[in-house]
């Protein structure tokens, strides 16, 4: 009987370890995607801001 309970304990421990590893991988992937999205957003904002400044520079010489 003790052999069966022992292997059951190993199975429970294995399931808990697999769960923790799976959640860790999920959180890591989520973190990486968030950082990539933030980098993409910053790059887009810089490019968009440069375009807006170029358009504003084209309009300003008329004011002189």
Describe this structure as you would to a colleague:
With 64 residues, this protein is mainly α. The protein has a domain at 23-64. Helix content is 91%, strand content 0%. The chain contains one helix and no strands. The protein is rod-shaped and about 85 Å long. The N and C termini lie far apart (95 Å).
Topology of helices and strands:
Elements (H helix, E strand, L loop, with lengths): L1 H58 L5
User: How many distinct beta strands?
Assistant: 0
The proportion of residues in beta strands is under 5%
Number of helices: 1
Helix content: over 70%
Q: Return Rg in Å.
A: 28 Å
Q: Which descriptors apply to this entry?
A:
mainly alpha; single chain; about 0% strand; about 60 residues
Task: Provide a brief overview of the structure.
This protein is 91% helix and 0% strand.
């Amino acid at each position: 009987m003790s052999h069966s309970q022992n292997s059951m304990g190993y199975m429970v421990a294995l399931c808990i370890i697999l769960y923790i590893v799976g959640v860790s991988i999920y959180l890591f992937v989520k973190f990486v995607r968030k950082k990539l999205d933030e980098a993409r957003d910053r790059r887009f904002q810089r490019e968009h801001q440069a375009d807006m400044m170029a358009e504003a520079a084209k309009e300003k010489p008329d004011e002189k």
